[in-house]
Amino acid sequence: MVKSYYAKTALLWLCEQTPNDDWTTVSQSVIKLLDFLDDAVDTGKLPCYFWSEVNLLRFTSQGDREVMKKALHDIRQNLNSHLAREFCVYKPGLQEMLTQTTTKLTERQVRVCLARWSILVGIANGLPGYLAMTTLPEVGCALAVMVRSQQLTSFDVDRLSEKYTYRRNLQFGMFKTLTVAPADVTLQADMQRSIGPDFVWDAAPLLDLLIEDDLRFLLGDPNAVRAWLRRQHQLPETERPAGLPADLRSPRGLCDLLLNIPLLSRALRESVPDKWHEYRQDSESATRTFREERVEECEVYMKNALDYASMYEDLAFDFHIRLGMDRRAALRTACRYGVELRRLCDDPETVREFERRRRRFPDPWGVLPFLLRRPL
């Protein structure tokens, strides 16, 4: 296999050596990266970007490099299949998109479906994250406890709060869209430098791929949202929400509403309250997981783990799809996993260690019992 650090190093060298105008579509950029890595493996030389005298491939054997060559060749030959597999596993909504017609889809049609799905997931994950941060005080309270206790690093806090960062979810979904959308669409999404080292791009061409069914998925009742927009435009300009689009008939209007999560939240709350409450329930579910992290009873964790292990066929499917095991080895591994997990759960030392770690949750002001509504 090819280590991810090799790919990151190759990308840094490519960014330095390749003129801006030579970067076109994401797919072509991936091919450039594969070509660079292929040449590096052939020569056995891949200088570290930060210390160019160090050759990252110096201690790799000929056999190792042959394995890497084979992996790079497989990625190149099956790039679309790899993307489709990454998107389609456990995503019934996307599979429904791909199977709406009995005729074989063209590559462009598949890419359009993948792009639409990525947009929907990014927005649908971003809104609950926004609601969790703005309407559920438990999240802010718990994060404040962790930050002020200074018992967790900033990296730990960022990782734990990541699930509530709606901008991250939204941007991740849009970036995935850029990687899979048809080339003629991504070429219209002009990328421009913003303040600092970051880049922004015009997402309107991407949102132009959405159809009315997609809007129903996101908004519940698109016509109610359209009526809400018309009512807002009848208000004096000073009373209108900031960034209000004229309508949803244009890609620009879709972009201005769907990617402006605070405005989208207000529009749904005032025009389609049932849909807004559905997103709110999603945010509460995520917050419940956050509240119970590291402090739930040991028996509950063990029961959940054993319940999952008991579904060994599902576990074997995970090993087969995600780890690339053959079916027989995946089934044996899943069964062995269940046996070892049962042995671990039956060991009294496991319970003692769990309780010891659970009580180390940082809470210098004693806020946590009130937050969890039960004593530790």
How does this structure look, described?
- Helix 2 (26-43) runs antiparallel to helix 3 and helix 6 (107-135) runs antiparallel to helix 9.
- This protein has 21 helices and two strands.
- It is mainly α and 376 residues long.
- It has a two-stranded antiparallel ribbon with strand order 1-2.
How many strand segments?
2
Which geometry do the CA atoms define? globular
End-to-end distance: 45 Å
Beta-strand percentage range: under 5%
Largest sheet composition: 2 strands, antiparallel
Q: Which strand order does the major sheet show?
A: 1-2
Secondary-structure element pattern, one letter each: HHHHHHHHHHEEHHHHHHHHHHH
Mean pLDDT: 76
- Tell me the number of structural domains: 3
Class derived from helix and strand content: mainly alpha
Identify low-pLDDT runs: 194-198, 290-295, 370-376
